[in-house]
């Protein structure tokens, strides 16, 4: 069974370690916060200017001066801090953020990522994504393996305008966990009930399969 | 003390003209200079270049200026959530320069602090870096990004005093402090304007030297773009 979006988020949450400062992108990455173990200490950064981001506020307690990068109302946890956008990207550029999780339209086998523009169709802008992928050393992409037309999003070369070059370290999709290596996409884990062949079919780029590939453990 | 107060938004915007370059603080609709934007709409200025992280929504924030086709060029990092913007951009009516968010912040801060340009790794190898100088430092590639030049900066703070000192609140801070002193004239509108001495100097985010005009704004709507809540 391929995973749903929550399943992808749940698997990525296992990558979050004690003491990490983590930046979560919009979409599936936002869901990761719901699955992080509660026996470890983690702080979420939102690049519009908060460290120590908490859950959504209770109904009636929302504050226009307290939002995340997706413009959603949020709360600040004890120990949180606010800062301006230059300091926020200073944290990112200066490699003080340990893990970046973001979505993508395409990832190439050399780690290139495209997620900000479809020429002539969709031009929303890159927001903070280009800054994040240019500086972070630990970048996990959360996305579906194929697009709505059924075409692979794990490619030999990105066809869309790039967000960053050679930067993605890991990809988690509804089918698989994949590491980006010098030689291509290395298959690490399969979603429960998904075969290596299913993953190979959905992957356009070079897929490296070494030995038995275990199923993800989502318990 | 050097007094920076002006009577009202009309006085604060004295000298704005067609074709000028304006910086406007805010992220999404949080921390936008609502009073100054309303006045720019009223004055019906044309051919503006606006530097602002976002472009508002269809009927609020910079969307109001877009709706009246007052903006010639928009410099932003993210412009989703605005159908009229997308229409004007795709039809070529509006010139758009998309800039990575951290680079946009750095270009404002460089202007504020007298740096002509800064090197950033953001955008290297992408179309953002096309035509720009690049350089390698310690084995990594960087793009040279020039400081912005603007005529006016419009910022919004939570509290300010007559000396122009500013304190921001929550994530409404965002780009506002970085635009102070980054333009020829900085106009700060505040929710609460107080007498000198009422703000603790230890808590000031932006010293008044970066602000030319300050006034207490009126009727803040502080619209929420994505109201997300949980149940008790």
From TrEMBL, chain A:
Transferase found in the keyword field: yes
Key word Transferase present: yes
A GO MF term: CoA-transferase activity
Keywords: Transferase
Coiled coil spans: none
Domain of life: Bacteria
Leader sequence segment: none
InterPro entries: 3-oxoacid_CoA-transf_B, CoA_trans_fam_I, CoA_transf_AS, NagB/RpiA_transferase-like
Gene3D superfamilies linked to this entry: Glutaconate Coenzyme A-transferase (3.40.1080.10)
Family membership: Belongs to the 3-oxoacid CoA-transferase subunit B family.
Name by which UniProt lists this protein: 3-oxoacid CoA-transferase subunit B
Source organism phylogeny: Bacteria, Pseudomonadati, Bacteroidota, Flavobacteriia, Flavobacteriales
From TrEMBL, chain B:
PROSITE patterns to which the protein is assigned, alphabetical: COA_TRANSF_1 (PS01273)
Keyword Transferase: yes
Taxonomic superkingdom: Bacteria
Alphabetized SMART domains for the sequence: CoA_trans
A GO molecular-function annotation: CoA-transferase activity
Keywords associated with the record: Transferase
Matching InterPro entries: 3-oxoacid_CoA-transf_A (IPR012792), CoA_trans_fam_I (IPR004165), CoA_transf_BS (IPR004163), NagB/RpiA_transferase-like (IPR037171)
Similarity remark: Belongs to the 3-oxoacid CoA-transferase subunit A family.
Classification via PANTHER family: ACETATE COA-TRANSFERASE SUBUNIT ALPHA, KETOACID-COENZYME A TRANSFERASE
Name of the protein this chain belongs to: 3-oxoacid CoA-transferase subunit A
Record organism: Gillisia mitskevichiae
Lineage: Bacteria, Pseudomonadati, Bacteroidota, Flavobacteriia, Flavobacteriales
